C-alpha cells in the first residue's frame, strides 16, 4: 500500500491581522453582497453584513465587480419602462 500526501501551507485564519495597516487586502464582492450591505436592508444576510464590521476596515478594501454596473443599469431601465407604462 502506498500513501501519498501533499500538505499545503495554510494561512492562519486571522493572518491578515499581522500585516502592516497600510497593506490592505482587496476583497471583490458581487452585486448580491453589495445589496446585502445596505444598512436599510434585512438582517437576514449576516455573513455579508460582517464585511462591514468596524475592525475589518483597516485590513480589507471592498471592491465591486463589473456585475454591479450591469445590474444597476438593468434596474434603472426596468424602472423607467415601468414608469412610462403607467402613461
Helix percent reads 25-40%
Provide the succession of SSEs.
Answer: EHHEH
How far apart lie the N and C ends? 77 Å
Number of domains: 1
Overall, the morphology is extended
Structural class: alpha+beta
Word description of this protein:
This protein is an alpha+beta fold and 87 residues long. The protein has one domain. The chain is built from 3 helices and 2 strands. The protein has a two-stranded parallel ribbon with strand order 1-2. The chain is extended.
Q: What's a concise summary of this model?
A:
With 87 residues, this protein is α+β, with helices and mostly antiparallel strands. The protein is built from three helices and two strands.
SSE layout and pairing:
Layout: E1 25-29, H1 31-36, H2 46-49, E2 60-64, H3 67-85
Parallel strand pairs: 1-2
Amino acid at each position: 500500500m502506498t500513501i501519498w500526501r501533499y500538505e499545503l501551507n495554510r494561512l492562519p485564519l486571522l493572518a491578515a491581522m499581522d500585516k502592516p495597516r497600510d497593506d490592505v487586502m482587496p476583497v471583490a464582492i458581487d452585486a448580491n453582497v453589495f445589496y446585502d450591505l445596505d444598512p436599510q436592508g434585512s438582517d437576514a444576510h449576516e455573513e455579508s453584513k460582517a464585511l462591514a464590521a468596524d475592525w475589518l476596515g483597516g485590513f480589507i478594501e471592498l471592491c465591486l465587480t463589473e456585475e454591479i454596473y450591469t445590474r444597476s443599469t438593468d434596474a434603472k431601465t426596468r424602472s423607467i419602462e415601468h414608469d412610462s407604462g403607467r402613461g
